[in-house]
Design goal:
binds guanosine-5'-monophosphate, alpha+beta, RNase_T2-like, two-stranded antiparallel ribbon, 7 helices, RNA binding, single chain, Ribonuclease 1, ribonuclease T2 activity, Ribonuclease Rh, Chain A
C-alpha cells in the first residue's frame, strides 16, 4: 500500500455550476469568471457510502503537475478553476485544499490525481450535452429533465444537488458521478443526500460585483 493510501471503493466526481456557487450571497467571486462549463469541485474517495478522511499531506506543488511534456496546468485552469475572489486569482489554494483533503488518500501522484479527474470532466462535457438538449442557463425551471438527459446520454445515474441563490430560488448547484478506484471508469453507485426540491432553475451566472449589476 502506497504511503497515505486509504482503502476506498470508488470516487465521487463532483462538478459544480459556477453560477450557483457564486450567486448565493455567501461568497464573492471574480466578476469575469467562465460561465460555459461545469467545473470540478473535486474527486472524493468513498468507502461504505461515506467520504474517507485523508492524511492531508503532502501539500500541492506546481512542479508536480508541470513537469516536462506532461504539463497539466492549462487543463487544470480550464476544468478546475477557483471562482472565489478571496484567492486573488490563483487556483492554487483550491487545488491544495482538494488535493490534501481528498487526493492524499489515493494511490495517485498529484499529476495522476488531477489528470484523472480532468479527463473524466472532459469526457462528460456536460454543458454541451445539456445545451444540445435545450437545457440552458436562463429563467426556465426543470424537474427531472436534467437527470434524464444525462442518464440517456451516458447510461449513468448522476446525483443532482441544489442550493439557493441569494433570494432563495432553488437552483442546480452540483452534478456528481461515480468513478471506479482506478479513476478511469464511470460506474453507477448510490449517493448520499441529493436535491429533493423541485422545480429548480439553471441560472445564468451573476456575480456580486458592480460589473454584474446591469441587466442584459
Ligand atoms: P456540499 O458542497 O455538498 O454542500 O458540501 C459537501 C461538503 O462535504 C464539502 O465541504 C466537501 O468537501 C465535504 N466532503 C468531503 N468529503 C466528502 C465526501 O466524500 N462526500 C461528500 N458528500 N462530501 C464530502
Ligand atoms: P469543500 O467544499 O471541498 O470542503 O471545500 C472547498 C474549499 O475550496 C472551500 O474552502 C471553498 O471556499 C474553496 N473554494 C475556492 N474556490 C472554490 C470554487 O470555485 N468552488 C468551490 N466549491 N469551492 C471553492
Ligand atoms: P506560487 O506558488 O508562488 O503561488 O506560484 C507559482 C507560479 O504559479 C507563479 O508563476 C504563479 O503566477 C503561477 N500560478 C499561481 N496560481 C496559478 C494558477 O491558478 N494557474 C496557473 N496556471 N498558474 C498559477
Amino acid at each position: 500500500i502506497v504511503d497515505g493510501e486509504v482503502d476506498y471503493d470508488y470516487f465521487y466526481l463532483v462538478l459544480q455550476w459556477p453560477g450557483s456557487y457564486c450567486n448565493t450571497g455567501k461568497v464573492t467571486c471574480y466578476d469575469d469568471a467562465w460561465e460555459y462549463r461545469f467545473t470540478l469541485h473535486g474527486m472524493w474517495p468513498q468507502k461504505d457510502g461515506q467520504g474517507v478522511s485523508c492524511p492531508g499531506s503532502p501539500d500541492f506543488h506546481f512542479n508536480e503537475v508541470q513537469s516536462g511534456s506532461n504539463n497539466l496546468l492549462g487543463r487544470m485552469d480550464r476544468w478546475w478553476p477557483s471562482f472565489n475572489a478571496a484567492h486573488k486569482r490563483s487556483n492554487k489554494p483550491f487545488w491544495n485544499t482538494e488535493w490534501k483533503k481528498h487526493g492524499t488518500c489515493t494511490s495517485f501522484t498529484q499529476s495522476e490525481y488531477f489528470e484523472k479527474a480532468i479527463s473524466r470532466a472532459e469526457y462528460l462535457n456536460l454543458y454541451l450535452i445539456l445545451f444540445k438538449a435545450g437545457i440552458r442557463p436562463g429563467m426556465q425551471t426543470y424537474t427531472s429533465e436534467i437527470k434524464n438527459e444525462i442518464e440517456m446520454t451516458f447510461n449513468l445515474k448522476p446525483r443532482i444537488q441544489c442550493n439557493e441563490d441569494q433570494y432563495g430560488t432553488v437552483q442546480l448547484y452540483e452534478i456528481t458521478f461515480c468513478v471506479d478506484k482506478t479513476g478511469t471508469q464511470f460506474l453507477n453507485c448510490t449517493y448520499s443526500a441529493a436535491c429533493n426540491r423541485e422545480p429548480i432553475v439553471f441560472p445564468r451566472t451573476y456575480y456580486q460585483s458592480t460589473a454584474q449589476q446591469c441587466s442584459y
